[in-house]
Task: structure prediction
Amino acid sequence: MGFLSRFFYTLWYFHHPPWDSGIVPPEVVEFIHENPPGRALELGCGTGTSTLALAAAGWRVTGVDFVPGAIALAKRKARNKSLAVDFRIGNVTRLHNTLVSTPYDLILDIGCFHGLSPSDKRIYLDQLPDLLVTGGTWLMYGFINEAKIPGSGSPHRYRINKILFSPGKASGWSG
Result:
């Protein structure tokens, strides 16, 4: 992500960013209720709303975001709730520089992937098999712009058919 993008997101956290609703998505709540606690990683965690919900349910959680102000707010929220969460400033396309240990039972992404460039999306996806335990879950929420769907004529189109994990390999990406 370039300097201007980082600058834009950093500025938003001086106010209230529109994407920071403070609401845990119902699918995440359902996942928490249906699965035993384990290790979780939230990519693009922002101020930690879902990360903290996982921690409150007994998960050992790491949250990563590239905006220092968002991570500072997330750490403050965790302290106020007396929750132990490992929040880290980092780039989701260079997680080997950010994370101490892996793998995770759950990788959660709420609105991070769709903001990446096409080349960064590929790097992000290539990391997933090394980060996720066999049989683990990747929950990804993002926006798909109809104009970017293949066949629309847009130069920035992409589609994920499915992602199949095997040791060291993710497949199913088409750009």
In short: The helical segments are 3-12, 26-34, 49-56, 68-80, 118-131. The longest helix spans residues 118-131. Residues 146-175 have pLDDT under 50 and may be disordered.
